[in-house]
Amino acid sequence: MKSRNSAADTRGNTRDRSASQRAPAGQAGRTARTDVLVVGGGPVGLSLGLDLARRDVDFLLLEAGDGRIDHPRVGTVGPRSMELFRRWGTAGRIRSVPWPADHSLDVAWVTAVGGHEIHRLRFGTAATRAVPDFTPEPEQICPQHWLHPLLIDALGTAPDGPVRLGWRLTGLAQHDDGILATVLDQHTGDTVTVEAAYLAACDGAGSPVRTACGVRTIAHHPTRTFRNILFRAPGLRARLGPDEPLVFFLTTATRLRYPLRAMDGDALYRLTVSGEHDTGTPPEEFVRAALAVDTPFTVLSDAPWHLTQRVAERYRHGRVLLAGDAAHSVSPSGGLGMNSGIADAADLGWKLAAVLAGWAGEHLLDTYETERKPVAEASLRASQENLARESRRHMPPEIADDTPEGARARATRPARLEALDVRREFDAPEGPFAYRYRSHTVVPAPAEEKTEHWADSPLPGGRAPHAWLGPGRSTLDLFGPGFTLLCAAGAARDAEPLRRAVAARAVPLAVTELHDERATRIYRWPHVLVRPDGHVAWRGTGPPPDPGALADRVRGAAPRDPERTGKAGATR
């Protein structure tokens, strides 16, 4: 049994935009044919859908749920993810969510909410915060119950859009030339067969797809159990006043030392507590212990969850590729989980598009794991350090007392918290921005790059840096669905040999000269080649000696001569 999408005929199938609409809900026994089947409609799967749509790749996205999020886990979209959403045309929608512009973004350590405040990290409000100069897109508060339907709406659901809500994968077979998936439409009870060239598993930490493929995950730390308690307290913000922080760290009880955070800037809050050795404590008891003010509240949900800090042993199993929590699960401390998964989508999307369009080299898809797995492992280490930092802080028992001893204990804590570098969990831009890809598709630079900084230099393998080109226009907006060669003023004429080499391989390339003073200062090499995902593939003081070798390298083709290819891409 073979899929229609053989290795030969997947190239060019993106022109058939009706492919994902051939099996509408309610028609049993029908077959849907598409280039990419995305399993899982969380933030990562939806982000991959946005990237594929931008590249005109035909895809179907299956989500077993109904698209609603009753118990939001994620609260903040990080700045690097916001840059990607800017590329995908959805950053404006995300910024339009009803988070109050005057609500504090501060983080505070307190004896209890409304009790004694011990220490505060000040970040201003969405209206007053300082926007960092290294990005056009600061982070945005957009909890999951707002983000999820917003992204679904951006893609569109059946019958006209690619998202299929209530569709659950029930069977999977893989062949040399494609994927054959069996899907249950839970609305009608009908079965649909989906033929695809590739499958992207974005189906969470428990990933049934990963399990079906026999891919193991490597545990880096023991599994821990927590409870997230979502509650509504309509009068709490008024009781706390205009300086109510975004995040509270509670300091007086071991099981309550994890964050309580505002979820909508109005009346919705989420309290995280330890669920280990739980004897069935009612959630209301935890909420009352967390609040020092008497205010009405209603518990909306109480969701136990398991913190598994794992990385898949491999990200690719033939035509199945893992992304997001299916590939790596990390502690939420520091907000690296969802945001790492969104970056997975940006890396995987252009590579799938290149393979389907026929211009990718034979090794390009393999570099997805080569590039993204080290980032996941670094994120796991950083998030675990953030989690461990909270465990290391010691608060004396008298810290909540209204006594001279209590006041003295509170006075000594800020310096100790600063010594623990607690700000790092909330203000560490190097995590999502400074990592660099090291694979065959990236030409390394010589040793002098050690003196350069990721924010103002086009480091090979790194994110191409931001510089304003005019009001509301960033260098990041220059990067389209193909490669982009940024040239110094007058240097575009030297790019013609490289332009011919990539054209001969059908690789999309746009050549742009920079004339803005700040952008020219940051992109100070006469030639900087930026990949379709916004990462630097090569830079040089002049055109490459062997444009063909460079073109093959950046598209993931095997080098004709490894020694010669290395020289062809070297910075001169």
Structure overview:
The protein has 572 residues and is an alpha+beta fold. It has three domains: 13-69 and 144-218 and 310-379, FAD/NAD(P)-binding domain, CATH 3.50.50; 98-136 and 224-307 and 396-435, D-Amino Acid Oxidase, Chain A, domain 2; 436-568, Glutaredoxin. 27% of the residues lie in helices and 23% in strands. The chain contains 15 helices and 26 strands. Strands 1, 2, 7, 8, 9, 10, 18 and 19 form an eight-stranded mixed sheet that branches. Helix 8 runs antiparallel to helix 9. The radius of gyration is 25 Å and the shape is globular. The termini are far apart. 48% of the residues are buried. Mean pLDDT is 90; it is low at 1-28 and 561-572.
Beta-strand portion reads 15-25%
Cα(first) to Cα(last) distance is 52 Å
Unreliable spans are: 1-28, 561-572
Number of domains: 3
Furnish the topology, listing elements before pairings:
Layout: E1 31-39, H1 43-54, E2 59-63, E3 76-77, H2 79-87, H3 91-95, E4 107-110, E5 117-121, E6 140-141, H4 144-155, E7 163-165, E8 167-175, E9 178-185, E10 190-201, H5 208-212, E11 217-219, E12 224-232, H6 236-240, E13 247-250, E14 259-262, E15 268-274, H7 283-290, E16 298-307, E17 310-312, E18 316-317, E19 320-322, E20 328-329, H8 337-357, H9 366-392, H10 404-419, H11 430-433, E21 468-470, E22 473-474, E23 483-488, H12 496-504, E24 509-514, H13 517-522, E25 527-530, E26 536-540, H14 547-554, H15 562-568
